[in-house]
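Deliverable D5.2: sample structural annotation.
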Amino acid sequence: MNAEALNTLVTGAIWRAEQLEEKDVPAVAHAWLEVSVLEERLAQVLPHSKGEGRIARRGAVRAALKANDYDRARLLAEMYGAEKGASRALKAALREMLEENARQAASRYPNAARHYNVREVRDVARHFHEGGAFGLAA
């Protein structure tokens, strides 16, 4: 699929996600995940040397965070930051998105943040997600 077609799909997906978010519909996370996947596909077509390519990379990470898929966001940020010739500005923007998400999580859960850092909580959540409730006992 070419960049023009993907841009059209991304625009529609963002509109849908924003509408669901505005109406507080539970499916909003899935809609933002769709945006992230489409932005990732757009980033595969457009090089990071082009402005649109950098926008797609930031969009893929931002949408993954809005979908509450921190693992996906982190993996995409690492992948885009490791691309040969990736600018310092792009790397900094991706890192800042992840850090801002961590700050927001800590402010949402201040009691937990006093005792645990966000990485520990995410590691336990990932372990729970992968192993189910009984996986925590292992």
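Annotation notes: The chain has a mean pLDDT of 90. The chain has seven helices and no strands.
The annotation will be released with the project's public dataset once the embargo ends.
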